[in-house]
Design goal:
Blueprint: E1 3-9, H1 13-22, E2 28-33, E3 38-46, E4 49-56, E5 78-85, H2 89-98, E6 107-112, E7 118-124, E8 135-138, E9 154-162, H3 166-174, E10 180-183, E11 188-195, E12 198-202
Length: about 200
């Protein structure tokens, strides 16, 4: 499984970053997502994987539509999604569609790092069960964010929860995502991170 990153969405990015730092997870500014109304802070998890805290960007105007990951409706932070890294997004989407598990169209994205480097990538979201089934990301020719991030924590485990784990087994297999999924009342994710001060659980 080529885990790319975990998405920790929040309605209050500054407050969430401060809380994570108090819990032993130090994050650095990532940058704004132009036109999306969001910005992020990041920390490395090892093996080029990273944690992304993402929330509203007060320096941008409100976007035309809702912010991704349900940010506009959140009352507190939550582990909203995870991403699997693929070398060729178009080919990966063909494979998932052939397997009967369609994803949405590829969407181009970009942001500029604080050092001025422009990152460009494409991603695609699953049609269903986006809480547990990962979205796909292709960094194309951009440097991967995880290569320059401090190792703020390490990932001990990532678990999915779903009312019927069998429903997500096929989509997970189609994207080579070996995620343990347990039965629970509603789809969600749970990550356990190791920090110098002990383990931190994000849900």
């Amino acid at each position: 499984m080529n885990l790319d990153h975990l998405v920790y969405a929040t309605p209050d990015l500054a407050g969430t970053v401060a809380d994570l730092r108090e819990r032993g997870i130090d994050l650095v500014p990532g940058g704004p997502h132009p036109g999306r109304g969001t910005r992020n802070h990041l920390t490395g998890l090892g093996d080029r994987a990273y944690l992304e805290a993402i929330g509203p960007d007060p320096e941008q105007e409100a976007p035309d539509g809702p912010r991704w990951f349900g940010i506009d409706d959140l009352t507190g932070p939550r582990l909203a999604a995870w991403a699997v890294r693929v070398p060729d997004l178009a080919a990966a989407l063909e494979r998932t569609r052939a397997a009967g598990y369609p994803f949405g169209d590829a969407r181009p994205m970009s942001r500029r790092r604080p050092d001025g480097v422009l990152l460009s990538w494409s991603l695609a979201f699953p049609a269903d069960d986006g809480e547990v089934v990962p979205f796909l990301i292709d960094w194309q020719d951009s440097p991967h964010p995880g290569e320059s991030l401090p190792a703020g924590a390490s990932l001990v485990s990532l678990t999915g929860v779903h009312p019927d784990p069998g429903l997500v087994a096929g989509p997970l297999a189609a994207v080579d995502a070996a995620l343990t999924v347990v039965t629970g009342p509603a789809p969600r994710l749970e990550a356990v991170l190791a920090t110098p001060g002990g383990e931190v659980v994000l849900r």
